[in-house]
Amino acid sequence: MVRLPGPLNRIHPARAARLFTSRLRSPQLTSRLGVLLGAAVAVCFLTGYLSHAIQHPPAWFYWPSRPVGLYRVTQGLHVATGLAAVPLLAAKLWSVYPKLFRWPPFRDAAHAVERLSLFLLVASALFQITTGLLNIALWYSPMSFFFTTAHYWTAWILAGSLLIHLGVKLPVVRRALSAPQRPAATAGMSRRGLLTAVGAAAAAITAATVGQTLRPLAGLSVLGPRDPQIGPQGLPVNKSAAAAGVTAAAADPGYRLEVTGPAGTLRLSLADLAAMPQHTAVLPIACVEGWSATATWTGVPIRELAAAVGAAPGASVRVTSLEQDSPYRISTLPPPHAADPLTLLALRVNGQQLHPDHGYPCRIIAPNRPGVLQTKWVARIEVLP
């Protein structure tokens, strides 16, 4: 009979045996799943930290403006790996399921630390996967916290608990991976078959979503929530002008862009901006949710606007939106991006005047930047000292 702790002991013994025992479970299976899941977590952590550092840069951090699509690759990899980790995590938890309910929960102080790290590891992994999926779908109502902050700090908890768990289990993993494989004595699925099924599930999820980043695979991206054809002018929209509360301000005939620097302040109408020399750049918008899309943008280079108000070489530029209630209302273009000739105050996209949902009357488009920092409905540009 399988003995379970507390209320779980009320499960019928025959059913409990089916739930908690399987000849497929083995240290070799758990170790192989752990290696795959650990690699996925490592990729997610590194690319996720990179995205966070770009949006909230530490003093030492440097992020270049070229190549123009680098963030598209790193964030696409982050989301694709996180989605592929779903079946890996499910299989890994199944493989150790009986051990999670051992009783008593710990034997001594050292074992208690190990069990606590295991609890944090499982809880943080489930939290990251769940909130990541909600973020991809832009479904924030189930979360009563700011996603970015919670996701970032929980990633550190996950990384720390994973390192502790790895330190404890490394000898077990090494023995398991070096031991000769023995087939499970079962008439059903083999361990190799289980690993193949998990790999196939991860591959299917990847194929069904990665087309958001790899546009040649767009036809396979049936689960991608941000197809570039959804939205005006063939580009996705995360937040519309109406949702941002800027419809009236953006359409106001009295709109003036304020450009401020050491030499003074300019107040430019949309006609003034259109009369300036226009430049065109083909650049992607790459969002933290994993989707990206390339478009042809036309507008005034930011470095020319900054030079018109006396910007010194290497100056940063602060951009403020007409949108009032957003944590990303203000963004900063660091020197590599402010000085890049491809960084535009865009007035047109794909040969058309910007749609209000894409930032009319004008927006920032810069190479190698997250979409959340490509500020829409620009009200003010300030050259920083």
From TrEMBL:
The keyword Protein transport does not apply. InterPro entries: Mopterin_OxRdtase_euk (IPR008335), OxRdtase_Mopterin-bd_dom (IPR000572), OxRdtase_Mopterin-bd_sf (IPR036374). The chain crosses the membrane at residues 33-55, 75-97, 118-140, 152-172, 193-211. Keywords: Membrane, Transmembrane, Transmembrane helix. Residues 254-384 form the Oxidoreductase molybdopterin-binding domain. CDD domains: SO_family_Moco. One of its GO terms (molecular function) is oxidoreductase activity. This is Molybdopterin-binding protein. The lineage of its organism: Bacteria, Bacillati, Actinomycetota, Actinomycetes, Micromonosporales.
